[in-house]
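batch_manifest entry 22 of 60
target: Putative permease
source organism: Corynebacterium epidermidicanis
requested by: lab member K.T.
priority: normal
notes from requester: please return tokens only, no post-processing; we will run our own comparison against the previous entry in this batch. if the run fails, retry once and flag.
--- input ---
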Amino acid sequence: MCKIVRVSDNPQDNGTSMPKNFAKPPELLDDERLANSRLPEEASRTFAELEGADHIDRSFIIAEGAKELASWCLRLLLIAAATYMVWFVGKQVWQGLLPIALALIVSSVLWGPTQWLRNLGVPKALAAILVILGTGGVFTGVMMAIAPSIGRQSQTLYLQTFELMQRTQLWLLGPPFHLKDDDLNDLFASAVNWLQAQSGKIAEGLFAGLGAASVFAVTLGVVLVLTFFFLKDGDSFLPWLRSVTGRRAGWHLTELLTRVWITLSGYIRAQAIVSLVDAVVIGGGLVLIGVPMALALATITFFAGFIPIVGAVVAGALAVLIALVSLGVTKALLVLALVIAVQQLEGNILSPLLQSRAMNLHPVIVLISVTIGGSLFGIIGAFLAVPVAATIAVFFRYLNDIIALRSGEKTASEISFATDAGSITGVWSEEFGRKLRDATLPRILPQRHTAVDDEPGTAHPTSTDAKSLTSTDIVGELMDRASNTPKKFARLFQKFPRR
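--- output ---
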């Protein structure tokens, strides 16, 4: 236990007074006279107010708050400007970035089989080619398997649709509508005239569709080529990046990009499992109910599942519509109940269980990202929305880990790193934060003592004593910064002899 003894020049001061036999040294008296002779009256009054006071002037608080607010506003404006520039440039080069993004996602899924072939001794290039050809073969086989059934049942579905239209016409002629044949003929004639008027736009749409098909073919070819090189030379990218950016930045990028890669591959695998379960259960239910093109609908359900929330709704609505046209209202309601039950099972049990480990994103964020991506870039944007949101979330989680290490909230042993480079970065960030706190805290919380009594049983300094010492340090710092004030006065209270 220790007690800080406050030394004061005024014997009437409420603090601990000086000993009666205490005599100031001559050099201290000279320093004090010199300081008092040169100090302005305002500085002396400020020192008197701060010494022993329980508060500081409000202007200091307001000025510091305004300064901090202005600093943060400037930072936010710079961040907003940089974000807008990135968004503007990205939108201009979207057609070039799209194949890269798709190739990265495909490569994250095919990286595991490629590494397995490499471990068996297959060369890098051959392993990449075999995996790409095998994946393409599986996809082509599925399409060829469902194509004949679609061709056979589409004609039947067309006839059933025509029959449904006739039944609808008879229903409109009867109660409660009691429409006449002339009214229906006029309605159909209006529809034909509208189609003829829109024929130009329809032709333009067909040509646009042909252009889109050619763009799709080119994009698909670029994606395949990029996927090949990513699978072949992907493991040499991070060492090259470290050689370009430097060791310290390279460590950060290695850990961050590895986390992004793990998140993307985990998301695609989890979504593939969820989509496969949906396709199998819904396809089996459609077969039992007797809905035509059940295999095709199951395939559509599988691929639509990669577009969260929206894809499942569209695939389910298509299945209900085909059941309504081919089998009637009762079977359509059964299909609707089946789709809703499967979606509830997926949304409440399967997806949270699998995707929470891969992305850890709230469903609201997923829905907002899909909506924004779909409105800006269509189906491709809706498909890429969740991976992009997951990548941004990984970046902010890594930034939060680094901040926690530097602020002392966590240690490197409490954070799970994906790479050895990340572990090195964690230890370095923890040490950097420790040095930063050691250099910053003494300026924020000054701790100086005039006298210390180490005798047992003595009390700790009171809040008044601590505030008095703090105010002395504040005035000392102010006097050190003033060019026309002797610096010796700032250290006046440090020259008294210790007991």
